[in-house]
Amino acid sequence: MKSIALRRYPFTSCRPPASPQVLDFLAPSTLRQPSCRGFKTTSVTPFWGKSQDSSQQTTTPAPKPKYVLSQKQREFLDSALRVNQAGELAATLIYTAQTPQVVRSHPHLRPLMKHMYDQEAGHLSTFNQMVAKHRVRPTAMYPVWEVAATFLGWSTAAMGREAAMACTEAVETEIGSHYNDQVREILSWQAEAESRGEELDDELKNMLTTFRRIRDEELEHLDHAVENDAKEARPYDPLVNVIRFGCKAAIKISEKV
């Protein structure tokens, strides 16, 4: 009987590094993890050895070089994360203030209000983690936005269900548009990278996916608001226009401050 030689294949360990502790965005900077500046990640490429057929050798294509962000692009991402965090904070506070009054008069809306609040709370948690991970400075306007959002939620709910839904329509129109601008900007970087034979870092790819998902969920809230008579609010046009103007102003301020 012919003996069969078994070839051993070396493997390298691909165990990922321990996940960094994500702290609340208000934690002292001295307690936060080191910066992920440039949104770089590291990975270990497994070594699979050669084919058993010595006449054929399996070669792994060399990975594409990573697209390196410019200083201006890093500043854009810092600004985007700061604004997104502030916007999601405001959204959770608006729903917190609206829900008791809305469901008191319209109990059937309790599941919808909870669904929208839960999604906004999830968005806020996501951006709190990103802000902490990438050492982004949160907006200094936090206390102002906290008061303003709470008052907006309470006052529109006091005006009735339609006004509360009109508030959601106005806010989500601006927020959805803002997320869309961010997605469009990162996609332009992706196109530039591909034209140079490069690819986006995995961290940036994940960020793009997250922005798209959250944008779609925000626009879903807009649809819910319209379905629940947002356009029946009185006075509709002045109310929606004032809220949209306030959102635009808050976005511009939070980008810088």
UniProtKB/TrEMBL annotation:
GO CC entries: extrinsic component of mitochondrial inner membrane
Record keywords: Iron, Membrane, Metal-binding, Mitochondrion, Mitochondrion inner membrane, Monooxygenase, Oxidoreductase, Ubiquinone, Ubiquinone biosynthesis
Cell compartment(s), UniProt: Mitochondrion inner membrane
Regions that span the bilayer: none
Topological category with respect to the lipid bilayer: Peripheral membrane protein
Chain sites annotated for binding Fe cation 1: E88, E120, H123, E218
Subunit structure, interactors included: Component of a multi-subunit COQ enzyme complex, composed of at least COQ3, COQ4, COQ5, COQ6, COQ7 and COQ9.
Annotated protein name in UniProt: 5-demethoxyubiquinone hydroxylase, mitochondrial
Pathway recorded for this protein: Cofactor biosynthesis; ubiquinone biosynthesis
Cofactor binding: number and manner: Binds 2 iron ions per subunit.
Highest classification ranks of the organism: Eukaryota, Fungi, Dikarya, Ascomycota, Pezizomycotina
Function as written in the Swiss-Prot or TrEMBL entry: Catalyzes the hydroxylation of 2-polyprenyl-3-methyl-6-methoxy-1,4-benzoquinol (DMQH2) during ubiquinone biosynthesis. Has also a structural role in the COQ enzyme complex, stabilizing other COQ polypeptides.
Family of the protein in this entry: Belongs to the COQ7 family.
Signal peptide location: none
Pfam name, any one: COQ7
Organism annotation: Aspergillus avenaceus
Top-level taxon: Eukaryota
Listed GO biological process terms: ubiquinone biosynthetic process
GO MF annotations, alphabetized: 3-demethoxyubiquinol 3-hydroxylase activity; metal ion binding; oxidoreductase activity, acting on paired donors, with incorporation or reduction of molecular oxygen, NAD(P)H as one donor, and incorporation of one atom of oxygen
Catalyses which reaction(s): a 5-methoxy-2-methyl-3-(all-trans-polyprenyl)benzene-1,4-diol + AH2 + O2 = a 3-demethylubiquinol + A + H2O
Cofactor: Fe cation
InterPro entries, per the entry: Ferritin-like_SF (IPR009078), Ubq_synth_Coq7 (IPR011566)
